[in-house]
Amino acid sequence: MLPNRSFRSGQQSHPLRQPLTLLAAVVLMLMAFATSAYAHDVTPGDAGYIQEIFGVHIISFIYLGAKHMMTGYDHILFLLGVVFFLYHMKDVAIYVSLFAIGHSVTMLLGVWYGWGINAYIIDAIIGLSVVYKALDNLGAFQKWFGFQPNTKAATLIFGLFHGTGLASKILEYQIAEDGLLANLLAFNVGVEVGQLLALFVILIIMGYWRRSPNFMRQASVANIIMVGLGVLLTYQQIAGYIAST
Amino acid sequence: MHNAPKPNVEDLPTKAQLRRSSLIAGIGAVFIGVCVYLPAEYGTDPTGVGNILGLTEMGEIKQQLAAEAAADEALHGGDESSSLMNDIFGLFVGAAHAQEAWQDEITFTLAPGEFTEIKATMEEGATMTYAWSATGGRINFDLHAHADGEGVTYDRGRGQTSGEGSFETPFAGDHGWFWRNRDDADITVVLQLRGDYSEIVRSE
């Protein structure tokens, strides 16, 4: 049995209690959904379904890709960071496309060539991408280093890491060789569908929020919380990695 | 303070636009919940859309697996079979056996979605040699055993039409196959057995 999320745990030791409690609830929920193996290898859930089927199942894999993205809090958190200060639809489209190109490339290549990168390490980097983007939003790099790193390049590069993380999760699903390419492409389409659905909701919430006169002040707090969540994600993955070795 | 200036209110979506988007999102969420999520997760398909999309089958398989996993856990206390043991054990399996006559030949047919278990009652350290072939479609199988908190998986596969090999039991109990037809036509399997077993047990 390959490692999966159900074996990872985190500890709370942070002053940001409320967001952390919320996050813990999300993690617990995901753990409840996560798969585990029973006596004669009955694997329930998405992985169990995937391990029973073979051949091309386009719509099923679109659904699974979309579900994976929408329940993948690390990807959603990064996406939120990317669009936090973008409100022209053109900018949103450019950045979200860069992220999509990045994660699609490594996701497809990673599964196709079976890159066996440790899921904890790659998820720790994904946690750091959230930290990076939130610090970027806070203008921390300008303040500390006196210049603004290219935000488009950062979105693309972190997209590549997010895709590698997606690939390692898909490899754990053990998709049958029969129909792999079509199913994988369908899963990728699903990931983008899920991302657009999540983005739609994010943009509505941000739309209301940006109209508030206190937005800029609250934006600072929100991005500081996001740094904290990113650190927590990274910490959990590193702790999981140490526990697994 | 930030890497972006404060947005101009006139550049932002208006309240009316936001309300309209929220309404669309709400309707979309209900639609996805009823027509996609319920069929794909629970096999419940009140609208019939899930069936058209082929997602109801996914929900039914998931529910079936969940029920089987729950039944398994109740039966065996949720113990996990040791994969390390399987790996070590795998080294001993697959040794060539001299060709002898088969002791038993079992033929069965499964309709799509149907499953059956065929097991041989064996002592510890006993060996079994087998060969099988499927016609009419491709079948999924799990060759395993479990007894008193122990478990072993000898082999498993999906979408296969034939197989052969042998295994040696690490513990006494019923050792054999779980077969399931996930194809879309009736499948007939002919299974031939030879080895140190006392009886063949079949359960639906």
Low-confidence stretches of chain A: 1-16, 26-40
Based on secondary structure, the structural category of chain A is: mainly alpha
How many H/I helical runs of chain B? 4
The span between the termini of chain A is: 15 Å
Helix content of chain B: 25-40%
Spatial arrangement of strands, main beta sheet of chain B: 5-4-7-2-9
State the major sheet of chain B. 5 strands, antiparallel
- How would you characterize the largest beta sheet of chain A? none
Overall pLDDT metric of chain B: 83
Describe the structure.
The complex is a heterodimer of chains A (245) and B (204). Chain A has 245 residues and is an all-alpha fold. In chain A, 75% of the residues lie in helices and 0% in strands. Residues 1-16 and 26-40 of chain A have low confidence and may be disordered. Chain B has 204 residues and is an alpha+beta fold. Chain B contains 4 helices and 9 strands. Chain B has helices spanning 15-42, 49-53, 55-76, 83-92, and strands at residues 104-110, 115-122, 127-135, 139-147, 150-160, 162-168, 173-180, 187-195, 197-203. In chain B, the strands form 2 sheets. Chain B has a 5-stranded antiparallel beta sheet with strand order 5-4-7-2-9. In chain B, α1 packs across α3 (55-76). Chain B is elongated, with a radius of gyration of 26 Å. Mean pLDDT of chain B is 83; it is low at 78-83 and 85-99. Classes of the chains: A mainly alpha (245), B alpha+beta (204). Chains A and B meet through α2, α3, α9 and α10 of A and α1, α3, β4 and β5 of B.
A few lines on this structure:
Chain A is an all-alpha fold and 245 residues long. Chain A has ten helices and no strands.
Structural descriptors:
heterodimer, A: 245 residues, mainly alpha, 10 helices, globular, B: alpha+beta, four-stranded antiparallel beta sheet, 32% helix, elongated
Topology:
The complex is a heterodimer of chains A (245) and B (204).
Chain A: H1 17-33, H2 45-52, H3 58-70, H4 73-83, H5 89-112, H6 119-137, H7 140-145, H8 151-173, H9 180-211, H10 215-244
Helix pairs in contact in A: 3-9, 4-6, 4-9, 5-8, 5-9, 6-8, 6-10
Chain B: H1 15-42, H2 49-53, H3 55-76, H4 83-92, E1 104-110, E2 115-122, E3 127-135, E4 139-147, E5 150-160, E6 162-168, E7 173-180, E8 187-195, E9 197-203
Antiparallel strand pairs in B: 1-8, 2-7, 2-9, 3-6, 3-8, 4-5, 4-7
Helix pairs in contact in B: 1-3
